[in-house]
Structures are given as C-alpha cells and as structure tokens.
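Priority: medium. Attachment 1 of 2:
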C-alpha cells in the first residue's frame, strides 16, 4: 500500500468563481441550491454519486467518492461571477431557458443574490456578443489587477477560506501560441503592451493564479494551455486544468470509438452535425470562434483510434464536424452522427445517432466536479497541469511531449487511481488472479 498523501482538510467555505454567468453557470448554481434543499438530485456528478472500488473484488469495498476523499460539502460552496451582461443569476437563468420556471422559483432568492462583477471582455475575441457590463483599463495588466481586487473583495465579503475559478464563458476566436505565450516574463510584458494575442480568458487565468486560485478552463480557448501560465502555476504551486467541457456529441465519441478499437472494427467516416440556439450557438456562428471549437472536437478520434498503429482500420477515415446556430432550439442541442464502419472481410456497416441533449444539464455537474476536485488537488499540494482530470474535457491538457488520452474509460481509471494514490490505497491494474491472491 502506498503512503497516503498529506491533504489539508476541507474546512471553511469554498468560493466557486465563475467566468461567465450564462446558461451553464446559472444551471450549475441553481442545481446546487436545489440539491442543498433536497428538492433535486445531483445526477451526472461523479463526486456526488460515484463510488470507488478499493482493494480486491473479494473485499467488497466500494465507498462513495465523497466519503473516500475529503471534498468540500455542497453546503460550504459560495458563488461569485463575472459577466459582460449585468443580469443577476435569476434573470440570466430565465433568459437561458434551460430550467423550468418551477425550478427557478424554488431557488429564486439564491439566484437573485448572485450579481455578476464587471467582466474583462472584448468583441475582438467574441464577435457575436456585445455586453456593456465591462471593465475599463489602460492595458490588460491593469484589467488583471482589477480581477485580483475582485477576488480579494469576494473572499473578504464571503469569508471563504479558499477559492477556485472555472471558465464557463464563451468560446473565443482561434489563437495559436506566439512568443508572448512562451514565458511568464514575455506574457506579463504582453499584458502591459495590450498584445492582441492575449485573450480575455488568459487575463482571468493570470489573475486567478496571481491571487492564489486554481483555474479550470471549460472552453476550447488556448487560455491556460501555454508555457507562460504553466510557469506561473508552478511558481504559485497551483493546479490548472482544461480544456472544453466534454458534453453531448464528443462524449458519445469517447464512448463509442474505444469500443470500435477494442473490437478492431474499422472506420471509413464520421460525419457530425449539431444545431443549438443558445448563446454558445450564437458565438459559434462566427467562423473564427467555430475554428477554436472545431479543433477541439476533431482531435478526439485520432488520439483514441491511433491510425499510426492501425493503418488498415483507421488510416484513411473522413471526419467532419458542423455546428449550426438555430435559435428555436435554445439550450436543447441536437446532434446527428453518421458513422461508416467496416468489419470482417471489409463488409460495410453504418451507425446513426440522434442525440437530443440538454447542453447545460450535461455541463453543470462537470463544473461542480471540477470545482471540488481542483480544490482537492490544491489541498493535496498538486500543481501545474492536472492530467488526471482529462475525464471532463474534450481536449485534455497534457505536459509537453505527451499526447492526450481521450478514451473515456482510461480517463476514468486514471482519475480513480489518482484518488486511490492520494489515500494510500493500492492502484487497480487488473493484473493477477485476485480471487486466489
């Protein structure tokens, strides 16, 4: 048995700071409020409902994850947010149209109490939104300092003992790493120089880490996936994670593709189309924002199927992704997948999937799990990229020179083995005959 890691206790209040107070954030906050009142259940949350097997199967030890590792309680969570629109969480939830009026009314007081702070926002990076609840400053470094002040004020006013920040705002335009992103010194100079390659999400990440707050990126933006932020995370001994919440269509891909590879079933093509009508759909109607999302969605299959190892099966498949903004659909995204596969003797087959999902209903429990697990990582002394949290992301961050793991089931094994290691339990490898051991 491994020696348990030293984990600081989860005492006091945990501040969950949300960049963006739209459909995902309001669904998350309302859901926590309803679960606290025992009016609804936190379905979809691994930290709240998941179990973890310990030791041999014959021992029958499978405690709840929330009882196995010291996680913050839902009752200890306090919420703060920034948004480029001034609507409080009640108004924002009503406009988002995810939850029923009945559910919103059941937690109306909690939602009305959450008023967003002014956002760091620019239409240069999210062209389809035009909010006016926005910070002003002479340069991006000054905007970062304002965010740091916000975090300090939030901490003092709410009496939190520690905080985490989760990016739940829009997808920004596609950016590639530049010299400004390669070191902390270059990044800070770029902030002072208003460098256009420093997007608002990066300003939030920098401010969070400077303020001692772990940061998780729920969008496909570059944000914390750059050497400058890794350097700052190491310096401050803080965890970072990302990117892009794994919901909907990509979740299905990370479930199905491992099954094809496990059975050596070949792939000719995978055509994916989406329609959605929420703010996310409006933002992704811009080609440059869509490019950021497309890169995240397309990367999944290659990594799972490993065409460089299985050329006959996956060396020449065609993968196409389309996202269409369709306002009547609201947050109830619909995805269609046509999958052309082949099997024994090269005989063709097809699979059709029509997934009528609720985007924010799938994302909200991810926000909860990330907030709690990033806080756990911080208290356990983890810092830098938290690859063990890849389970929650479409485009998981990994250290340089490593490829990301996209297989959902391998990701879950890595996550649970990390929790076992933290508590000094044996890792599950499935080696040996456990019954006779």
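Attachment 2 of 2:
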């Amino acid at each position: 048995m491994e020696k348990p890691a030293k984990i600081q206790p989860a005492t006091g209040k945990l501040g969950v700071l949300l960049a963006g107070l739209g459909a995902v954030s309001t669904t998350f906050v309302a859901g926590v409020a309803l679960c606290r009142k025992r009016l609804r259940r936190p379905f979809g949350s691994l930290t709240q409902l998941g179990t973890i097997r310990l030791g041999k199967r014959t021992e029958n030890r499978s405690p709840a994850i929330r009882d196995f590792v010291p996680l913050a309680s839902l009752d200890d969570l306090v919420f703060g947010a920034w948004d480029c629109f001034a609507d409080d969480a009640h108004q924002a939830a009503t406009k988002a149209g995810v939850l029923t009026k009945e559910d919103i009314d059941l937690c109306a007081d909690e939602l009305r109490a959450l008023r967003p702070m002014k956002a760091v926002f620019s239409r240069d990076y999210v062209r389809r939104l035009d909010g006016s609840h926005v910070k002003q400053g002479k340069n991006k470094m000054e905007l970062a300092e304002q965010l740091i002040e916000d975090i300090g004020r939030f901490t003092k006013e709410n009496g939190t003992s520690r905080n985490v920040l989760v990016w739940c705002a829009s997808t920004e335009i596609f950016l590639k790493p530049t010299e400004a992103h390669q070191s902390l010194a270059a990044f800070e100079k770029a902030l002072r120089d208003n460098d256009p390659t420093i997007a608002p999400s990066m300003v939030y990440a920098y401010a969070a880490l400077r303020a001692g707050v772990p940061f998780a990126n729920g969008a496909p933006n570059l944000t914390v996936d750059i050497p400058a932020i890794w350097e700052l995370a190491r310096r401050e001994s803080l965890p970072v994670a990302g990117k892009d919440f794994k919901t909907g269509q990509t979740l299905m891909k990370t479930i199905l593709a491992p099954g094809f590879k496990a059975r050596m079933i070949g792939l000719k093509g995978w055509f994916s189309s989406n329609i959605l009508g929420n703010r996310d759909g409006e933002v992704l109607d811009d080609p440059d924002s869509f490019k950021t999302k497309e890169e995240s969605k397309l990367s999944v299959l290659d990594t799972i199927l490993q065409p460089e190892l299985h050329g006959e099966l996956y060396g020449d498949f065609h993968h196409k992704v389309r996202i269409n903004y369709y306002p009547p659909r609201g947050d109830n995204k619909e995805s269609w997948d046509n999958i052309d596969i082949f099997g024994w003797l090269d005989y063709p087959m097809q699979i059709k999937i029509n997934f009528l999902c609720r985007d924010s209903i799938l994302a909200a429990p991810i926000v909860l799990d990330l907030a709690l697990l990033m806080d756990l990582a911080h208290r356990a002394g983890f810092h830098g990229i938290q690859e063990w949290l890849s389970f929650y992301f479409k485009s998981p961050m990994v250290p340089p020179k490593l490829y990301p793991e996209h297989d959902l089931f391998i990701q879950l094994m890595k996550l649970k083995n990390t929790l076992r290691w933290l508590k000094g339990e044996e890792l599950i490898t499935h080696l040996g005959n456990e019954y006779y051991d």
